[in-house]
Structure formats: C-alpha cells, structure tokens
Design a protein that fits this description.
About 40% of the residues lie in helices and about 15% in strands. By secondary structure, it is an alpha/beta fold. It folds into two domains: about 5-35 and about 270-365, Aspartate Aminotransferase, domain 1 (Alpha-Beta Complex); about 55-265, Aspartate Aminotransferase, domain 2 (3-Layer(aba) Sandwich), CATH 3.40.640. It binds pyridoxal-5'-phosphate.
C-alpha cells in the first residue's frame, strides 16, 4: 500500500508556502488552552521515578480505565485506552470485520475521510449511505442498505464535517438495524463535548450488545498531540480488540494518560462550557459573514466545522488553492468528504481569526 499524503497536509503546506498571510481553517486542532490540571500533571510527571517512564499496561493505566468506566457507567473490562479516537475506530472496524459476519462497512456520505481510508486498508467493501441535506441520517436508507453482508455501521455524532447531531431515536434505530443484521454499530463520539443542540445521545446509553463506542480527549481537552482515546467494546468482543491493540502498539503513552487522568479528575465542567461558548460565538460570527458573502452553509448543531457553498465557485482543490492565494483563507475541498458536498468547502472554526476569515470571504465573493 502506497503512502498517500492526506489531502489536509497538502492544503496546509500549500497555505504555509503562500506569498501572503493565510488564515488556516483546515485542521481540526483546537486553538484554546488545555485544562490547567493537565499542565500540572505533565509538570509533576517530569520529576517522577524512572519506573514511571516504563510501559503502562497495554490496555491503559488501570486508574484511567476505571475513571472512564465509572464516568461511562460500564464495566472496566470493556474499556481499552487507545492512541486517540483514530486507533479506537480502527480497532472497532477491524473487530467488526474479523467476526466473520460480513465484509461490508456502511458509512455516511458526507463521511469523515479516515473511515473509508481504514476500510480500504482492512479490505472491506464500503457502501456510502447518503445523509439528508442537513446532515441528519435517513435511517430508512440504512435499513435498506444493511444486509447479512454488513459487518458494521460507522457513524459520528456530533459530525465532522456536517455538524449534525443524531438524536436518541436515530441512535436507537441505527442500533436496531445493526442488531437485525448481526452487525456492529460503531459510534465515534469524539466531539461529544461540543453539542450545542442538547440532542446528543451516546450509543452507550442504548445498552445494545452490538455497539462499540469510540472517543478521545483530543478535542475536548484540546490535546490532539497527546494521543489518548478509548474504545468501549461489548464484553464478548473486547479481548480480541485488546490483542490487536497490543500487537500493533504494545501500549500507549504513560505520561499522556497520567496527565489526562489528572485533568479528568480536577477539571470543572465550566472548562468545557467555556469552549462551547467560544465556538458558539465563532459560529454565529462566521455564518453572519457567510451571509454577506452570499454563501449557502451548514449551521453546526455540534463539533466545529462549517460547510459552505459559493455560487459559481465549486470547492475543488484548485479553487481551494485559489482561495488561499486570492482571499487568504484555507479550507478543505468538499470532495474529501465523499460525494454529497463535492461543491462545498469545509472550514474548521478552531482559529481565533474565524471572523476575520469570513470577512475576507465576504470581500472576495
Ligand atoms: C470524526 C473524527 N474521528 C476521529 C478523529 C481522530 O481523533 P484522534 O485525534 O483522537 O485520533 C477525528 C479528528 O479530526 C475526527 O474528526
């Protein structure tokens, strides 16, 4: 398999090499501070005994797994600490495929591009199920698409790139489709702290034996570089997933897990509320300016991405590059996310310059 440079690296490099000031709205790296307790945990770690610099248990620090299990109200044996939600998604998809209950993954269109990427690496057949125009799921379309060939349905709520949040009824219906077809429902909940709608429903609340939940602290604690996430598997499926995690990674990072544990215990809910509030304000200001630019756009119910469509300016890679050169704003081409929003451009609102970027877009268009 050839190494394929992810498109977002390409766009970021193009923007960095541009001959002008460019506002980067490509990557999903939060631009705000991590919790103070996380920094404290790291500082303290630097002076720990040398034995604290050695392998943690493969499935994660026991105390961290217990903290996650008690917060998520699941048995600790079901929790694997992973290298971010990315690894958790890989483990879940691989586990679904190796069960011998189908070789197909049902994904949404628009889709987070690493899902089809992983599916390809795992030799799975991919079926993209179109979402509704507003990014919400058409459960009937999933019901129709699912069959005994389906190994898993993989969804993400709050969603990247559409910003849709799937409500309890949708999640229940998806789990029922998975159960009826002896498939897994893989629910990637990495943006769970960024729900502005109040509708977010974790698949863990469904108590379905067919659900795998994946998550991470990458976004909620603004630490995409730490690589601490987790997967919660059904009891019957967890052991083989632990084995795969161990054989691929040996284990995860002990300092990062220790700092996250401290931050989990000591961070006040107001920390998370403050980042939601910051994003709410940015979304309002950004979408107001998109109105001035005459654009059609999605208003996120969660996560921190806006898809925008500019009349007569399809969101191709060459137009995205033109926008870098001529407007000083970098976004992601819509066709990165499947076929449904090919003409659109995705903007990540994790920059303090989001409003300025939207004003540049308004001037340009
Ligand atoms: C939907 C989704 N899942 C997973 C990830 C990867 O998360 P992590 O950095 O924790 O691996 C991202 C990152 O942008 C994402 O948008």
């Amino acid at each position: 398999m050839e190494y394929d440079t992810p498109l977002f690296f390409h766009v970021m490099q193009y923007a960095a090499a541009a001959d002008r000031d460019v506002i980067d709205m490509v990557s999903g790296n939060p631009d705000w501070e991590p919790p103070g307790a996380l920094r404290d945990g790291l500082r303290e770690y630097a002076d720990a005994d040398a034995n604290a610099f050695q392998y943690p248990p493969s499935d994660g620090l026991q105390e961290l797994r217990e903290e996650i299990a008690s917060r998520r109200n699941v048995d600790v044996g079901r929790v694997i600490v992973t290298n971010g939600a990315g690894e958790a998604n890989y483990l879940a998809m691989a586990r679904a495929l190796e069960r011998g209950a189908g070789s197909e993954l049902l994904l949404t269109d628009p889709v987070y591009p690493y899902y089809p990427g992983k599916a390809g690496m795992l030799d799975a057949d991919v079926t993209l199920v179109p979402t509704k125009r507003d990014g919400h799921l058409d459960v009937a379309a999933f019901r129709e698409a699912a069959s005994e060939a389906t190994a898993a349905i993989v969804v993400n709520s709050p969603n990247n790139p559409t910003g849709a949040v799937y409500d309890a009824e949708t999640m229940r219906a998806l789990a029922a489709v998975a159960e009826a077809n002896d498939a897994l429902l893989v629910s990637d909940e990495v943006y769970d702290h960024f729900d502005f709608s109040g509708e977010f429903t974790s698949a863990l609340s469904l108590s379905s034996p067919n659900c795998v939940v994946t998550n991470a602290y990458s976004k909620s604690m603004a630490i995409t570089g730490f690589r601490v996430g987790y997967a919660v598997f059904p009891p019957a499926l967890v052991e083989a997933a632990k084995t795969r995690h161990m054989l691929v990674n040996v284990t995860g990072s002990r300092p990062a897990q220790t700092a996250v544990l401290r931050a989990l215990r000591e961070t006040d809910p107001s920390y998370y509320e403050a980042s939601r509030e910051l994003l709410r304000e940015r979304i309002d200001a950004f979408t107001d300016a998109l109105d001035d630019a005459g654009a059609e756009y999605t208003t996120p119910e969660g996560a921190f991405y806006v898809l925008a469509k500019f009349e007569g300016f399809p969101g191709t890679l060459s137009n995205v590059e033109r926008l870098v050169d001529e407007a000083g704003v970098a976004g992601m081409p819509g066709d990165t996310f499947g076929t449904a929003h090919e003409d659109w451009i995705r903007f990540a609102l994790v920059t303090p310059r989001a409003t300025e970027a939207a004003e540049r877009l308004a001037d340009y268009f």
